[in-house]
Amino acid sequence: MISFDEAYDLINSSDIRLKQENISPLNSLDRVSCCDIVSSVDYPAEDNSAMDGYALNSHTASKKSDGILKLKIDKNVIYAGDALKTTAKHNSALRIMTGGYLPKMFDTVIPVEDALVENGSLIINSSIKPNKNVRKKGEDIKTGDIILNKNTRLTSENISLLVSCNIKKIKVYEKIYASIISTGNEILNFNQKPKYGKIYNSNGILAENFLLQNGCIVSSNFLCKDNLNEIADALSYAVKNSKIIITSAGASFGDKDFTEKALESVGFKIKFRQTAIKPAKPFSFGLINKKIPVFMLPGNPIAFYTCLAVFVKPFINRHIDINSRLQIIQSKTLFEYTKNNRRREFLPAHTFYKDGAVYSEIYKKHGPAMISSFGYMNSIISVPENTSVVSKGELLDTYLI
Fold it and tell me: Cα–chain-centroid distance for residue 290?
């Protein structure tokens, strides 16, 4: 049995190869850019009005002999999206709406609420500064500017940015093909009727959704009986169609724990067996044919999820070169807890911000099989190996989910 840190380092000493893909920004949600992305346009594309109002030439408007100047208002109006066709002269004013492109002879806009209009003329009785209420061409983004850095996860916000800058294709890391193999004679598929002594395959569903949220494509999600040949057949398929494999249950030393033996039939070599953590002590890891990582997760749901969060997620994120979405911060404890082991312990918790500080409270029921905590938790508290008592107000590492 090895420590949490040793297990983490051994897992992340393994690598998988990922290709790059060219895709449309419209299909890029949650993907990760594998190079810097530069704008192909200026933004704004032209000088345009930031207000509904009147466009004019500030130099002309400054020529007031008696302190007042009247500029005839052109009959045309420029709206957002209009082509720049106007008969307006530099010594006139022109009605313009927000987003309308300014003709070259004009360089400032008086908002409609500040304009004094008499008999078809704009009355100027104060100083006029250039570029007032004008969005200048390229003031936000210039052609060739980097608008998105390499290794950025694509969100609805930055996809909008890409579309605005006329980006038609982007390079992203390919999604990681993953297989899930859940084992157990007691496990039912979701569409089966309840039976005495049986439980539903929640781990398989949990792992599939977790992987989909974290840059993976689930190529297969098997449910196998505690049968060596059945598990081996599932693994044979997974090896041909996956870059990583996650197993649920069957990894301990019971009479029906066939997972490791089945893995050995497809070229599996163990890197470590069991980890000094709680929950999830049976967690083990190894490689098939020296290239396909296999995460052997325990069957209890909270233990299973803990391993996904603290081992599988960082491994995936390292390969697409982003920092883990599951951030680690420190929060103040609102609970007392006694730990009677020398393992790293993980507790489901609810973390929140109040009065300038971040606090965490653990769920009233905590144990590797207590699934009710899934309806409460938004974080995981990490209690160090050398800690035996946690008091209220302590600062502990907190994994934000």
Answer: 30
Does position 273 have pLDDT exceeding 70, yes or no? yes
- The H or E element spanning position 142 is none
Distance of CA 125 to the CA centre of its chain: 54
Interval 32-53 mean pLDDT? 96
Residue spans of beta strands (DSSP E) within 196-343: 199-200, 216-224, 244-248, 268-272, 277-278, 284-288, 292-297, 328-333, 337-338
Confidence of residue 64 (pLDDT cuts 50, 70, 90): low
Asked if 58 and 91 count as a contact pair (C-beta separation under 8 A), the reply is: no
pLDDT tier for residue 60 given thresholds of 50, 70 and 90? confident
The first and second tokens of residue 177, run together, are: 């093909």
Q: Which SS3 state, helix, strand or coil, does residue 81 take?
A: coil
Q: Which of 186, 71, 165, 179 is nearest to 118 (CA)?
A: 71
Long-range contacts of 87-91 (CB under 8 A, 24+ apart): 90/57, 90/60, 91/57, 91/60
Name the 3-class secondary structure at 347: strand
Indicate whether 255 pLDDT > 80.
no
Q: Where do we find the tokens 């083990």?
A: 284
Task: Tell me the mean pLDDT in the region 2-26.
Answer: 95
Q: Mind listing the pLDDT tens digit for each residue in 333-355?
A: 999 999 999 999 999 999 999 99
Give yes or no for a contact between 11 and 285, defined as CB atoms under 8 angstroms apart.
Answer: yes
Number of H helices, E strands in the chain: 8, 28
In degrees and rounded to multiples of 5, residue 181 shows phi and psi of -130, 110
As given in the structure block, the two tokens for residue 32 are: 């990760």
Q: How many CB atoms lie within 10 A of CB 335?
A: 17
Contact present, 28 and 148 (Cβ < 8 Å): no
Identify the structural domains of the chain with CATH numbers, from first to last. 4-18+174-319 (3.40.980.10), 21-40+144-173 (3.90.105.10), 48-135 (2.170.190.11), 328-400 (2.40.340.10)
